[in-house]
């Protein structure tokens, strides 16, 4: 698939068939996402891949799937054959930026201009979503309100933050998000040429 087509075809899909995703396709998605950039090549990003129905049901509960269903959406989280939980370790970045090639002129960790760990996991998630499209699949990222509960459920270490859940599977026709009614912002609001 052409890169442009993958980008334009991608959308958050909220209805999946129960057809399973082959382990090879899942490996390819995870492997491509691993090629995301990371500040200082820290590679603080990681994934938990969940396919067991009971665990998917628990994760779906934490995502508030019943509220989606109440709002006219399908039970797209528990039905999706694969749930990926993208994670990032902020602590890994602090450790990396205390290494000799990364400390500032005073031998100290830099003052972070922005939390690059969130930028890096965002890049990783984007590749995973596009890789799913390239495999003929769809994906949806959803937030999880109670992250501590998700951490306990999946045994995630204290220093690692799960960002939410990516449901992945074969697409079925779905109800579009009401947010899309907002439309795209005008070009002038999005592109500022030669300065803001
Ligand atoms: C950081 C982030 C959080 C999101 N959280 C949710 C969510 O909790 N539930 C949901 O249904 N969609 C969620 N979305 C999907 C957005 O609603 C969706 O990306 C947006 O409406 C644009 O639609 P599209 O991705 O299909 O083009 C999230 C997207 C992002 C990038």
Explain this structure.
It contains nine helices and five strands; from the N terminus they run H-H-E-H-H-H-E-H-H-E-H-E-E-H. Helix 2 (23-33) runs antiparallel to helix 7 (116-134). It is α+β, with helices and mostly antiparallel strands and 196 residues long. It is 39% helix and 14% strand. Strands 1, 2, 3, 4 and 5 form a five-stranded antiparallel β-sheet that branches. It is globular and about 55 Å long. The site of flavin mononucleotide has 8 residues, from strand 3.
Q: What key attributes describe this structure?
A:
single chain, 196 residues, alpha+beta, five-stranded antiparallel sheet, 9 helices, globular, binds flavin mononucleotide
């Amino acid at each position: 698939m052409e890169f442009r087509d993958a980008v334009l075809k991608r959308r958050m899909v909220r209805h999946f068939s129960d057809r399973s995703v082959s382990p090879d396709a899942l490996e390819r998605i995870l492997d491509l996402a691993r090629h995301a950039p990371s500040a200082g090549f820290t590679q603080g990003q990681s994934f938990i891949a969940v396919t067991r129905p009971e665990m998917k049901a628990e994760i779906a509960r934490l995502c508030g799937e019943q509220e989606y269903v109440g709002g006219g959406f399908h039970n797209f989280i528990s039905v999706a054959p694969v749930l990926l939980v993208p994670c990032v370790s902020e602590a890994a970045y602090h450790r990396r930026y205390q290494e000799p090639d990364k400390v500032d002129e005073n031998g100290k960790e830099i003052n972070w201009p922005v939390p690059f760990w969130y930028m890096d996991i965002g890049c990783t998630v984007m590749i995973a979503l596009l890789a799913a499209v390239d495999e003929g699949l769809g994906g949806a990222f959803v937030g999880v309100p109670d992250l501590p509960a998700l951490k306990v459920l999946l045994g995630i270490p204290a220093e690692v933050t799960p960002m939410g859940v990516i449901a992945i599977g074969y697409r079925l026709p779905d109800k579009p998000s009401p947010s899309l009614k907002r439309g795209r912002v005008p070009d002038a609001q999005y592109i500022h040429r030669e300065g803001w």
